[in-house]
Amino acid sequence: MDVGGTKVLALALHGDSLEPVGECRVPTPDSGDGLVESIAAAALDAAKDAGAKIGSIAAGVPGLVDDQGVMRFAANLPNVSELALRDLLHDRFDVPVAIDNDANAAAWGERVAGAGEGADHMLMVTLGTGVGGGIVLDGHLYRGAHGMAGEIGHFVVQLDGVQCSCGQRGCWEKYASGSALGRIAREAGFESGEAVVAAAGAGGAKALKVLDQFTRWVAIGMAGLANTLDPAVIVIGGGLVEAGDLLLAPMRQHFNDLIEGGEHRPEVPIRPASLGERAGAIGAALIARDFLDK
Ligand SMILES: [Zn+2]
């Protein structure tokens, strides 16, 4: 399952296949109790769709998730905190449950079966409601000391900048997420982020300028992370990927300009996630599979 800022996606997977045999999506509710109910309902529906029973549950969820499967804090789900999701789902279904951060899950999905396949050093950046991150180091998903590593959306790129739902100001995700594109677009007189992408696709000069400004913000964060981590590949996920080269081409250009010593190091490929919106759910399943096999 993939729990996003706006929707919960449940895929039913059987055996070793990554091809879903059942699927369900429901809106993400704005409370902890509601979230547990929605996840449970979506899981049951996906299993029903597949004509199967639930043998285990794996979910990628937003924000800070500890190694006990507790959702500690999620900037974009302000009414969900200290939610013991793993235990609650386990009590309910009496099956093994694995909970991880959504972008960690997406990163692992892309690393095992997607655009980062085989890369031992990979950075995943998801551009959605917020900006999520997953880091693969030496072939392993890097979780940090408390399971909370990779929260790349909340490093500050603009001192005293735009207010973030995490409580700080000027966080990267306020400038580089899908929601941020919407804000930048409206400031430039467009109706929405989608409207800018459409106008840019038709060659509109003003829209192309907005995308240029936006992708520069995205590239600033990615270049800083690449300076720190030296990844073999950066995989971009989230809804914005659907804009394709309209976003990726200027993003690559800015990234190459902003990374340290760009002319003196191998180019870091920036690839769109190949599992698309399923990356988080499939990645969660792959994480659970490794973990349940032990
Ligand atoms: Zn923040």
How would you characterize this protein structure?
The chain has 294 residues and is α/β, with parallel strands linked by helices. The protein has two domains: 2-104 and 277-293, Nucleotidyltransferase, domain 5, CATH 3.30.420.40; 120-273, 2-Layer Sandwich (Nucleotidyltransferase, domain 5), CATH 3.30.420. The chain is built from nine helices and 13 strands. The chain has helices at 32-50, 85-93, 102-113, 173-176, 178-187, 193-201, 205-229, 245-258, 279-293, and strands at 2-3, 7-12, 22-27, 57-61, 64-65, 71-73, 81-83, 97-101, 122-127, 131-137, 140-141, 233-237, 270-272. The protein has a five-stranded mixed sheet with strand order 11-10-9-12-13, sandwiched between helices. A three-stranded antiparallel sheet has the order 1-2-3. The longest helix has 25 residues, at 205-229. The two termini are 21 Å apart. 47% of the residues are buried. Residues 75, 154, 164, 166, 168, 171 line the site of zinc ion.
SSE blueprint and pairings:
Layout: E1 2-3, E2 7-12, E3 22-27, H1 32-50, E4 57-61, E5 64-65, E6 71-73, E7 81-83, H2 85-93, E8 97-101, H3 102-113, E9 122-127, E10 131-137, E11 140-141, H4 173-176, H5 178-187, H6 193-201, H7 205-229, E12 233-237, H8 245-258, E13 270-272, H9 279-293
Parallel strand pairs: 4-8, 9-12, 12-13
Antiparallel strand pairs: 1-2, 2-3, 5-6, 6-7, 9-10, 10-11
Zinc ion is lined by residues 75, 154, 164, 166, 168, 171.
Throw out a few tags for this protein.
294 residues, alpha/beta, Nucleotidyltransferase, domain 5, 2 domains, 5-stranded mixed sheet, 3-stranded antiparallel sheet, 9 helices, 13 strands, globular, binds zinc ion
